[in-house]
Amino acid sequence: QVQLVESGGGLVQPGGSLRLSCAASGNIFSINVMRWYRQAPGKERELVAAIISGGSTNYVDSVKGRFTISRDNAKNTVYLQMNSLKPEDTAVYYCNGIIATMTMTMTTWDDYWGQGTQVTVSS
What we know:
Layout: E1 2-7, E2 10-12, E3 18-26, E4 30-39, E5 46-51, E6 57-59, E7 67-72, E8 77-82, E9 91-102, E10 107-113, E11 117-121
Parallel strand pairs: 2-11
Antiparallel strand pairs: 1-3, 3-8, 4-5, 4-9, 5-6, 7-8, 9-10, 9-11
């Protein structure tokens, strides 16, 4: 089994910064893409940023130039550096990963989610 555990959320003033972390643990064979999603009250969950195993990244337009996604493959950890935060960035942020586990006979790819971490941007 695989677990994703997020940390780093909190309350920050507009213009401030936060760094989210997501550590994957368990019987991990390989990690393909890692993503950060967010969900604000009354809104649908949206994809914020993604990073594939080769290092290529992708961002939603509203965070380009402010957020940076990165990963440490040795630690099975993905980060989201969030700068110049705005009130509209307030949401629960979720880590998501496409991760392979391996048994004696097969490799299985599954979609895993963290429990979420609250980010609140307010003065």
